[in-house]
Design goal:
The protein is about 75% helix and about 5% strand.
């Protein structure tokens, strides 16, 4: 009889322990959230303006390069070699500067994007944590990274939290 009670208590304890340790899972669709946040839309506009500025600067550099190249090609045959050599060097420098600018501009655009996105990601992260805590979720996953999105979809709840 005592063995039965002990077994029953052990089984009950395991069941209660398992229930207490039950974990709730949820997932969010980050792309959907980002598409609806006004700050993210503003960030995209600001980033686009930044990219356009860099593109305009590059176009200006390319036009200067093309003009220098045309000018060099139109030099008279009796132009001294020293002048021709000086112009060739100038054109080569311009070409190198354009290539360097292109690489630097790509890096600057990525840095600008990260700089603009950081506060938005922070606010989304805080909203996810708040919703997860309030609803008792142990884990919240990004639905884009899952092969199967089980658990609750809390995307709408996170969007509501962000709109507060």
């Amino acid at each position: 009889m005592n063995k039965r009670i002990v077994k029953l208590l052990i089984i009950t304890g395991i069941t209660i322990s398992g229930t207490l340790n039950a974990q709730k899972f949820a997932h969010v669709y980050g792309d959907s959230i980002m598409a609806r946040i006004p700050a993210a839309l503003e960030m995209q506009g600001e980033l686009q303006r930044y990219v356009q500025k860099k593109e305009q600067e590059l176009v200006s550099m390319q036009k200067s390069y093309e003009n220098a190249l045309k000018e060099y090609q139109s030099l008279a045959k009796d132009t001294p070699d020293a002048i021709k050599l000086s112009r060739e060097q100038n054109i080569q420098e311009m070409a190198q500067n354009i290539q360097k600018y292109q690489m630097d501009a790509e890096q600057r655009v990525q840095q600008k994007q990260q700089e603009l996105l950081a506060p938005i990601y922070d606010s989304v992260q805080k909203a996810i944590k708040k919703v997860a805590k309030n609803k008792g979720y142990t884990y919240v996953f990004s639905a884009q990274a899952l092969l199967y999105a089980g658990g609750d979809n809390i995307t709408a709840l996170v969007e509501q939290e962000l709109s507060k």
